[in-house]
Amino acid sequence: MILSRRLTVSLALAATVAPLAGWAQDAPIVIGYQLPLTGNTAQYGQDFKSAAEIALEKFNASGALPVPVEIIYEDSRSDAKEGVTIARKFVDNDDIVAVLGDFTSTVSMAAAQVYKKAGVVQLSQTASHPDFAKISEWQFRNITTQDQEGAVNAEWMHEKGIEKVAVIAEQTDWGQSVVKGFTTPFKDMGGEVVFEEFFNRGLADFRSIITKIDETNPDAVYTGFFYEDGAQFLKQMEQLGVDIPVYSTSAAYNDKLIELSGEAADGLFLTATFLPTREDAGVQEFVEEWKSLHDGAAPGQFPAQAYDAVNIMLEAVVRAYPDVTRESMREAVAATTDFPGVTGNTSFDENGEPLKELTKATVENGEFVEVK
Amino acid sequence: MSKQLLTKVGMVVLLFVVVPAVLMAFDRGYFYQIATIAAVFVLLAASLHLVTGVAGLLHLGHAAFYGIGAYVAALLGSELEIGFTLGLPAAGLAAAFVAFLVALPTMRLISIYFAVATLAIGQMLYLIFLNWVSVTKGPNGVLLFSGIDFFGFDIESEIGIYYVVTAIMALSVVVLYRLTNSYYGNALRSLREDDQCAAAMGINVTVLKMQAFVISAFFAGLAGALWAYTTGYISPNDFNFSQSILVLAMVVVGGLGSLPGAVIGALLLILLPEVLRDVGDTRNIFVGLVMFGAILFLPKGLFGEVSALRFARRILGSGWSGSADNREVGWE
Description:
heterodimer, A: 372 residues, alpha/beta, Rossmann fold, 5-stranded parallel sheet, 20% strand, globular, B: 332 residues, mainly alpha, two-stranded antiparallel ribbon, two-stranded antiparallel sheet, Branched-chain amino acid transport system permease protein (chain B), ABC_transp_permease (chain B), transmembrane (chain B)
């Protein structure tokens, strides 16, 4: 019973992989993209795929290379065991010269162990775990670290004369880095963190936290949340009549935040790397293309990160061509300097961390506007 | 050669000769990875089988004990540099110890109350993994750089890892198999069928439940250590409620009360999503349909308990035909 099942399954699997073995001279250059296309983070993965398709189509139509580039998408469901399995599958496929993804840090890091061992460059559009890029020379990311965002926010508050800050963040690796990234530089500037608390993602009732924040009487609140939690938090702040300025990170930057929280979002301060309203030809082209595919909805921060990640990878392919190997791709990705993307100019430092310029923004009358 | 011996030898040959030969013939990391994950989940399903299948206690928090094993192995390995050889038993024992502690107040509960209690235990432990940042590193997870160091041998090759994982899995499954097909196993079955009747016949129901729970947690802990060492990175989400449900689904689809069923269920639910990978986003629906179909048309499982017991009695042969005139014991 076990014999026949295991064997048939192995053979069936082998049959699906075998055709990839023979490849002709003009074969396309293949990049793997692991992302959650199903499961409870599927909305992000689907957005990444959509953004990647826009970027890839534009690239192949531009004729920058005599051969087409192809992306193989694999669904990780944001599950570490699937992520690792996909990584092994990508590594097995000799045609794949580089890999994009995954979405969450945890899956990206589990998969990173495989890429590190096999020597395949991995560029994640979102993995923000402080140690992700440090795993090996093969890991890169296209999202600003919270050390960068926290420092900009700390500086910004300091300039406004804010001295006492309450800090809350979601209980994830990312939330941890938000708190650390902000409190360290803020305390160095002489600021005081009067309250610090983590909440579990998807918390419906923030009122006890808000009450506790209010009791400590801070000058501002610094928050590490995504737009879903952000909207809840802001609405409940308003309901309780707590009028303390709220600062946040680029993760809160999403039109849905305003949609969900209405007027409560007005006066929110945040740092962002991508503003769809920015007057820049590249940004506008992406935004138009995205809107035409998504019933007129503007893209958020994450699809923009993915769009840039794919373009950085494609630019690296051009740089490495015609000698496109896993090794040359690492060098080519590492050599990225001032890549003009929709999320600002990107270079990588020696650890594979992106160096980006951050935009300060605020919400005014239900719209994100840049703070000059 | 007798038929019993032939079956046993056949299984050993399959696991340690045929499958490795196929794996080596293809030499693809992807297949090794699937084989490893399948082995880990076979062990998990087999350990849950003892509690849920044999003793009939609906256990909704099994993944938490799997998690304890993984965390203990990973933290011992990365923080204290205690390798695999000691880390593996430590992982099992730690999981068993925690199971013992939580079992003390809960094992007198029955049916749905027990299920809810285990659900709570699972969530509680998951939240500890997530929020006890100073020890578990919270959501950041634990990176484990050391490989499998097995009694002084560094196991680095893919095939070596396969052998270590499979050997530990196979050995554990054999222990669970002998345990469930012994008089001890029958006592557990009696408590599933009617615990009051079992108690009236002199079986200490609470102690028996507790033992089953602790033994099961021990093997789940071993599975956790194997997962930690083969992946190199663990985080709380690997051990959340949905993993408990996945393992439970394996046991139910395979056949409650049947160890071969649990093994087949685990293989099915690990291999099927991989085979269907090319189908695309709808593959989860197909997996769901297969599970639904299995429950609808084979409510006793793919390899039900009656077949499993008949199979076991044939294999264990002489142990079950001990009477003087060599009459078969058990039902036929």
